[in-house]
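This is your field. Have a critical look at both lines of this record:
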Amino acid sequence: MPEPYASAVEEVVAALGSNVTRGLSSAEAAKRLDEYGPNELKEAPREPLWKRFLSQFTSLIVLVLIGAAIVSLFVGEGVDTIAILAIVLMNGVLGFVQEERAEKSLAALKKLAAPKARVIRDGQTQMIESHLLVPGDIVEIETGDFVPADVRIVHQMNLQLGEAPLTGESTPVEKEHDIVLGPKTPLGDRRNMAFMGTIATYGRGAGIVAATGMNTEVGKIAGLLQAASAPPTPLQERLESVGKILIWATGIICVVIFILDIIRGPFTTKNISEMFMVAVSLAVAAIPEGLPAVVTIALALGVQRMVRRHVLIRKLPSVETLGCVSVICTDKTGTLTQNVMTVRKLYVDGKVLDVTGASGLQGEVTGGGAKTAPTPTLERMLTVGAVCNNAKLAFNEETQTLKTVGDPTESSLLVAAVKGGVDWAKAAEAYERIDEIPFDSERKAMSVMVRDRAGRPFLFTKGAPDVVVQRCTGIEFDGEDVPLVESHKAEILKANQDFAAGALRVLAAAYKELGEDDEEPEENNLVFLGLYAMMDPPRAEARDAIAQCKHAGIRTVMVTGDHKNTAVAVAKELGLWAEGDEVVSGVEIDEMSDGDLLKRVEKIRIFARVSAEHKMRVVKAWRKKGQVVAVTGDGVNDAPAIKEADIGISMGITGTDVTKEASDMVLTDDNFASIVAAVEEGRSIYANIKKFIHFLLSCNIGEVLAMFIASLVGWPVPLRAAQLLWINLITDGFPALALGVDPAEKDVMKHRPRRSDEFVIPAAQFGIMSIQGLVVAAAALAAFQIGWNHRGLTGEAQYEYAQTMAFATLVIAQLFHSFDCRSFRRSIFSHGLFANPSLVAAFVGSFILQMLVLYVTPVGRFFQIVPVGVQDLAIVVALSLSPVAATEIIKFFLRMKRQ
């Protein structure tokens, strides 16, 4: 069968073997239910719970840690085994809990299907469960009903459907039944169809079910949602790379140290066992087992901060992804705009007036920037708009404010009346409604017959300007009626064209006084009053947010279901559009191959009249360009692209459940500006992750080099296994966590996004890190040599004292070094020594713990160390400051080079 929208009603009914007045028989419906299946959306089978839990432990660095824990257990380090496994388990549980909350998209899609449907079967209208609908059923639709399946409309009376959740169309769509469309008509232009999940906002109608379940447009989106895969975040990929490098580098060094120690002998079982323990302990110390935990905690703390900035993060790794977003594909309706139809301009008394204020009742009518005194004609025009209207103002008990209830366009006329000084309630009382001539698509007008307090009857009319003007014989200026001549008509139509060119929707208002015997008045011989020009206004803060994105090197692209003219008008007002930018429609995208789209995508700033498939293609094209893509949206049609993107962003207020469940983050205020706040937070968090990775790895390099150099030169092992594990514990703990909450640097939004393939530690930074590690190792070895040469000590006592000096120096040097890692450009002093109170507290706490280990004898004996004198402690502290001095010299030369 051809597409139902491309066929006449009679052809569709015949092809589906149904009858418009009698519908299907119960027996035929049951037969088709077996053939087509229930009118439901199917879920993809999910992996068992245990598999999903075990998948949390498959990353390379986690497997390395598990291996290290097993080895530690075999060499007798049970405490370290427990610590490592506890960290791994904690990370696994956190990740599992997050993911279990993230895969509910199709369950949410099911909620869009109406639970009940009004259907004609066996010649009778009856209510049935919507999942029992089959192709060929005749369903009836009234105002407020959800459409239960995809239906071809067979008849209608002023039927309008809200299709924003499916197509992104910002205004209700007027439906027609007696038209036949082309076979490639875009989804948003299929005016003879009603789609599952949309809602009737006005009028009534009936249609024949053309598709059910997964064959509906919503079902096709469900299929796309199943096919879409969430890509790994840049951080996850980079940590995998870090894990591989650590395995190879540490493994090689440990094997070399073990072989050198064996060669030096003596070749005894006890010596081999001790050397093996040292090599394994060094391997465990070199691999920062605290890294996954610190990353998780840093991301979790970032999530808490984002909540205060109206951003709810659903998947922890997404926090970091925000930091490298380079393209934001944003929806228009409800994201860049307020999703509230608002009168922006009026044409009255031959002049164009502005209506200030966005959504809500705050605002006024102005002319030339100043408040306009209401003329009799302006007051009458606003009164006609408020009375020829079925919307209402209602009091919201929760917010203690007035809000509009009803059709968005009619609601905007009420708001305009309030802004213009007309009391809606008094106007409704002053003009008693006698009758109504409802709007229909043929007349393109609505009229009400009213009677004023003096008993005089009037006809108030609103409708399409070109239609209303042709029915007018007079025009009112400043309260005076004059004949409507051709010059007046030309001015009115020019004003209408100017408004339409600015993507404003225009309605005309007119009236006439009736005679007492006019029981069925006609819409003619009217007096023209003026034009209302309205649109869904841009958010005031979105313009600044887009400018911030541009400053931060982030490209903003509009992807909307609305028409080209509307999209361009909004884009220009927001500063999103510039000369030379391109705009393409969904039909044009269909005509492009993936290769053509890839070539042109960087030049296109607006994608208009797009479907869910188009949006997916746009996202994939940008990702193939190597960009990190964020996608925003609120409708069902946005969900597949949101899941496909590097980071999906849904609206918390207007967003559908489908979109929220498919997303990585939710804007609790539906504000595009909150995305910029989230990007800023994401960049700060990633910067902090780099800081503590730099800190952990440079410290571990220092430990490895100290052991390696000692083995090369033939010295005794400068650190025992337990000492290495303590160093790792005390430095990988509180200082690293404190660096994870370091305040953001002031210029964090003044740089271009980092490349998604950028290594977490760039080559230049790795060089600095290696120099720092070498200085730490040199300080530890110097302390070891000073301790070895301590007067009056020989044998084992001499060895223990030397190891204690090296041990103390390594710990304290790393604690001082944590302050260096706060910035890779600024001096430790200019950056604010006490700007991070958490780091100061971590330093003091860890230093006290180290002093307890040094000077509390029972604890010291466990680590085989001895107390050192005050003079030697001063030497330890002085040597520990050497990494700080070296780093400050490096930063100084780097600053000189940048200048």
The longest helix spans residues 672-713. The chain has five domains: 4-43+111-218, 49-102, 256-306+678-745+757-898, 311-337+539-670, 376-515. The chain has 33 helices and 28 strands. Residues 101-110 have pLDDT under 50 and may be disordered.
